[in-house]
Amino acid sequence: MSNYKELKREAFEANVALPRQGLINLTFGNASAADRDRGVFAIKPSGVDYEELRAKDMVVVDFEGKRVEGDLNPSSDTPTHRRLLLAFPAIGGVVHTHSSHATAFAQAGQAIPIFGTTHADYFNGDIPVTRKMTEAEIATAYEWETGNVIVERMNNLDPLDFPGILVNRHAPFTWGKTVAKAVEAAVAVECIAHMALMSLQLAPKLARIEPELLNKHFKRKHGADAYYGQSSK
């Protein structure tokens, strides 16, 4: 019997949510769920169709990159997930998609400007974009180096204030305190990207949201003074 049954279930539920939310085509994308107390994370196996995916298929990998449970090969993006989990101790899950509108911004190498309150409910500013990867980074440990350019761009940014990023020429990665929160962030990033593109069509010179409105919306959901939602008491 699996020693990581609940962790694998959590990762499985996150992965199958991605096509259900319209964030995945074919087998693009993956989600991982971490158990920091045990120093492992569960991730989608490489290249397996979502319709065929089962919880038992999830692959458990430790934070050194060693497979500790599972017969299938883990996602080719596993080193990127591992790099982010090592760099951001506050997160418990990572999601990677190729959702269309967010990926359009990534391919263009453009951050997603913060135009409205929907965006401000999730991000404390523009959704950042990484620099382009170098030839050497691409030719060597590509997936690990992808994580490195994300970490480089996130320097001085709180990963819980900015729960996602666009990898230049590639696509979005998101994260959260749990993998379910990382999925929610992935849905939000795609929604925000779509609305930003439509807003720019209507008003090509649209200015970013006013700082006081950004602060109001972000802080009512995040931080010590947050008041959105129901009390946990």
Care to describe what's here?
It is built from 8 helices and 7 strands. It has 233 residues and is an alpha+beta fold. The chain has a 7-stranded antiparallel β-sheet, with helices on both faces. Strand 3 (59-62) and strand 4 (67-69) form a beta hairpin. Helix 1 (5-20) packs parallel to helix 7 (179-202), helix 2 runs parallel beside helix 6 and helix 3 (100-108) crosses helix 7 (179-202). The mean pLDDT is 94.
Task: Offer a few descriptive terms.
8 helices; L-fuculose-1-phosphate Aldolase; 233 residues; alpha+beta; 7 strands; single chain; 39% helix
The SSE order reads HEEEEHEHHHHEEHH
Gyration radius, in Å? 18 Å
Distance between the termini: 36 Å
Query: Uncertain runs with pLDDT below 50, 5 residues or more?
Result: none
Name the beta content range: 5-15%
Given the structure, what is the number of helices? 8
- Major sheet strand order: 4-3-2-1-5-7-6
- Considering the protein shown, what is the CATH homologous superfamily? Class II aldolase/adducin N-terminal domain
Helix content: 25-40%
Largest sheet: 7 strands, antiparallel
What structural class should be given to the helix and strand makeup? alpha+beta
Provide the number of structural domains: 1
**Gross morphology:** globular
Tell me how many strands there are. 7
Oligomer type = single chain
Give the integer mean of the pLDDT values. Answer: 94
What would a concise description of this structure say?
With about 230 residues, the chain is α+β, with helices and mostly antiparallel strands. The chain has helices at about 5-20, 80-85, 100-110, 115-120, 135-140, 140-155, 180-200, 210-220, and strands at about 30-35, 40-45, 60, 65-70, 95, 165, 170-175.
